[in-house]
Amino acid sequence: MKKAFLSTLCGLFTISLAFSQTAAPTGEAGLFANAAGGNPMLNLAMADLRAKKNKADYEGEVLGSPYLNDSFTPSKVFYDGELMGDFFVRYNALNSEIEIKESFEDEEVKRLIADKNITVKYGDKELRFTTYINKKKETKNGYLSLINKGKNYKLYHRLAIKYVEGKSAANSMVNAVPSRYAPFVEFYYQIDGVDRIDQLSQKNGKLLKQIKKEHKEVAKFYLKENDINLSKEADLTKFFTYLNTLE
Fold first, then answer.
1. DSSP characters for 58-96?
2. Is 165 helix (H, G, I), strand (E, B) or coil?
3. In sequence order, which residues have a C-beta less than 8 Å from that of residue 68 and are 6 or more positions away?
């Protein structure tokens, strides 16, 4: 598997023997360029971190952060289920990108390329690049975390951050509202045997329309009897654990 992983890398991009002498890639086609040299086990699918300048950078004070955690967190990186090594990771939830360093002191930050075979154990979550469909029926790519799995359904958690533009003060009697980075959470589900992941409604009536027909009546009763709050991850996990016991 390790040899196959490295072979895949070679097929995707040219490995740089002297990273500092290689120009940074541009455009989506260049995202596979410039894997780090050295120990081949550390030659993960990493690319130069693109300097993405959000317009918020130019608009004065911005509250919050595009990162779930501004610090780099010790994390494990897997490729197709096999451990590739221990790294320091920071998740840019605004751009849905994983930034990675080989050591805490390392000043060179790289970006983990979007590969569905790569899983990152980040805190209490396992982040995997996935294709999913949001409530607007738009097909998106980003990082989801599998939080419940059974014979009938899989339940996913998505942590994300959006940029909310501030407002100038209309007059001297009103304070300006600063721009901010606003975290939010979404949940997604997958029915066993169906090759798609859809956003889960967190309203009882709409959610019951999303699950299997044969489960609707018992699920409705379970939601009522157990006072399930669909806005809470713990309750959602409890609910899907029950759904996965049904025939």
1. GSS-EES-SBS-SS-EEEEEEETTEEEEEEEEEEETTTT
2. coil
3. 91, 93, 159, 161, 183
For residue 129, CA distances in Å to 9, 134, 177 come to 17, 15, 34
| Residue 129 bridge partners (DSSP) | 143
Residue 208 contacts residue 224 (beta carbons within 8 Å): no
State the residue for tokens 């780090």: 36
Q: How long a stretch of residues is the chain?
A: 247
Domain residue spans of the chain: 49-199, 201-247
> What residue has token string 């419940």?
148
Handedness of CA 135, 139, 140, 141 (dihedral sign): positive
Identify the H or E element spanning 240. helix 233-243
48-92 pLDDT, tens digit per residue, is 544 344 443 444 678 999 998 999 999 999 999 999 899 999 999
